[in-house]
Amino acid sequence: MELFKYLSPERIDVLENQALRFTQANYLNDPFEHMPFVSKIIDEAYTKKLYDENFKPIIQQIANRKLCIDDIPEEFREAIPDDVKEEVFSYSIGEALNLIPGFHPNNLINLFAMEGQELGLDYSSLLKESWNKKFGVLSLTKSCDNLTMWSHYSRSHEGFVIEFDSSNEYFNRGKNKGGAVWKLQEIKYSKVRPKLTLIDSKLGENELLEFLIENILLTKSIHWEYEEEVRLIQNLSDSDKTLTYNEQEIHLFGFDSSAVKSVFLGVNIHDNLKNKVLQTLTEHRYNHVNIYQGELSKSEYKVEFKSMTTS
After folding, report:
1. How many helices (H) and strands (E) does the chain have?
2. Within a domain: 8
3. Cα(259)–Cα(203) distance, rounded to whole angstroms?
4. Secondary structure element (H or E) that encloses residue 262, with its range
5. What residues are paired with 219 via a beta bridge?
6. Measuring CA to CA, which of 45, 106, 113, 212 is 20 to 30 A from 87?
7. Is there a single domain that holds both residue 151 and residue 58?
8. Torsion angle of alpha carbons 38, 40, 42, 44, nearest 10°?
9. Is there a contact between 160 and 263 (Cβ–Cβ < 8 Å)?
């Protein structure tokens, strides 16, 4: 697979420092990023399983015991009128839970299986905020001559594009581990936002994580299809370097210079940047890299790249 990264002029640091940023959802340019439609937290089958396995046996053991003051949370004890205390503590725990069904563990658990809209909660935004702190995304593409991409991500053709070797270890660390992170995965484009439940009883633990990553990190609107995006996802806690810039937390992951195959210079690249890029590529670590200069086609709406040397 051919693999390219479009970069703006100031991102010469990628070549100089051999490091790529894995970006949190909040800083990506799509407001729907990491935003499937999360209807509820867990499904009904899972809530029943959770109750039957963890709460029901305990309740069965204590259901016939008389309710006592220690069973009432401290903040609620003073709210019980003196003239009804005797009656309140005449009930067994089982009877008390049936009298106040809202406090029954089964009903409390079932709240998680209710649609977020019924509870006035936006599960999708809560999910995005949570995953924003955990995962970073490296966005790549399969084409180096997309005019729109050059305009959007390389400052109107003033920047450059790096071609990476997709077979390099950097892009294949997770390939044989069976995990959902640190392996190249293509974006799936959709007309509608995925609707999902965060904990689905039909999926095992590993299947669930892959299902969530596919629907949260690897699905975008069909409007972005022209980007032909390929992503690498990583846990931000594993970054090689973290710094702050413009109040953003930047997570960098280093790569070996052997991962770079070619560099394509934009048709509007300024001489100052061009010289910096060429100077960096004359270093021994990059002596294997091919360099191309972009030129406007004389007969078509396309950019043609001509091979050049650093000498």
Report:
1. 12, 15
2. yes
3. 36
4. strand 260-265
5. 188
6. 106
7. no
8. -130
9. yes
